[in-house]
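INFO batch 0412 | record 1 of 1 | parsing
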Amino acid sequence: MIKNLLITAFYCALICPPAACTTVTSGQQGDIPPGLMPASTTAAIMIKPAEILKSPGMEMVPREVLSVVGQTEFGIDPCKIQNAVLMVDSFTDLRNPPGFGMVITFAEAQSLGGNITDSLIKGSYEDMTIYRSRDAMTPVVLQYNKNTLIVGLEPFVTRMLASKNATGGLANLIDSANPDSQFSAYMIMEPVRETIQQNLPPKNQIPPPFNQFLDLPELVESVVVEANFDGQQKGSLKITAIDDAAGNRIESMVDMGIQMGRQVLAGEMTRQIADLDPSMQLAFQAYFERAGQFMEDQMRPTRNQKTILFEAKNQGGQISNVAVIGTLTAMLLPAVQQAREAARRVSSTNNLKQIGLAFHNYFEVNRKFPSNIRDKNGRPLLSWRVAILPYLEESKLYDEFHLDESWDSEHNIQLLSRMPQVFACPNLELEKRTVYLGFEGNDTAFGDKPIGFAQILDGTANTILAVEANEDAAVNWSAPQDIPFDPALDVNAVGNLRPAGFNALLLDGSVRFFPNSIEQQALKNWIQKSDGNIVEYPFR
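INFO prediction complete | emitting tokens
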């Protein structure tokens, strides 16, 4: 419960102080009541929400609602939070969380109350009211004075209260920073350098050039992040190295990291647009190049001896615009891809439906379903796909086949390049090959002999006739080849053509989408026409 208070207070400190909040006094340590920063503090985060809330775009924050919720649940008005300062202790074991404490200062008197106090134990600490949980690892809440709460792990809070004004280390770093920053974060490396290094993987386990980044902890002295959310939305990251030589190495690492990041992003974007039209691919690539160069220019730091400084000045809203446009582009790509995939799925469904209709028209004429064309000895010569050509308005092409010759005979092989469009899957460019395949084997729609309705004991609506197979299962369209089926083996030739599943043509002529989550046994039941195991179709 106190964790919820911690999160809520910190959140509200960021977004919901009222216009009545006073301006914070100058000097960073002025944001902390005197004597509350232990000398062992290795990191701190400071925010000035009152100033942040004066920035454009924050007018519609629901302060009224947050105020009522805060008072009901915690007895405090979160919209009266003036400053929040989080301090983190040094640590020697990454498996255990470090000590921490947060000082929350209000614009006017506040005290903990509300529903949360029903689950806490109220006590006293040096004449101050303290609220504890029964869990020692849960933060305590201390009423430091009428305007200030301290939230944190009790051992660290105790040290905060026992501290004198901190000097050296982090305190000096804070004092030297810009006192006007609305958000700032500070970290010194020395107290935790050895711990971090001990927990890094050995260099020989990380491939070059990435393994050089493992040297950063021994090169860095301190890190400072500062940001303002006024009209220009300025921000900076300052890394101070242990000496000039270390600064030079860090600068080289940063430059390489920027280039590597840009290459990785370009590669990922190229992969994402691979199935778009060539003209659209070129347009996206041009935009990615332009946006990438802009962001690289914005990110590239300057170095002054051992100081590496990253600065972002959002002049005219450029960075925000790039972020928004980049987000919209990232949203547009999946939308374009999903729209294209939907169109291809519909087109493929129509192809399968035409094949199914041809099957039934063939049956009406021949009183049996089509199968591979065979010689007098039963040897397959041509595919069932050739047999249904007259029922796909391809009688002229059908008449050109020599039905007593193999599909790859000197004559028939010349017809391979004239594959009807109905056998061309819109997801692939295979020219002479198709992925619209049946299953051949015992108790399937394509056995050694043609079948009729009497042999489909499970029913035509419960038996698969043909499917969209994976690209690596594609066959020459006129060849008497399909997917070999053995009920003792898994069916692995479907499911990779499109996201989530595959289209299947049933013997009744309908087309249904089977998800990849279907169990193997259920899929086998659908493939077999007379096994007596009818599986309901719950998929949509």
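INFO post-check: The chain has a mean pLDDT of 83.
INFO record closed
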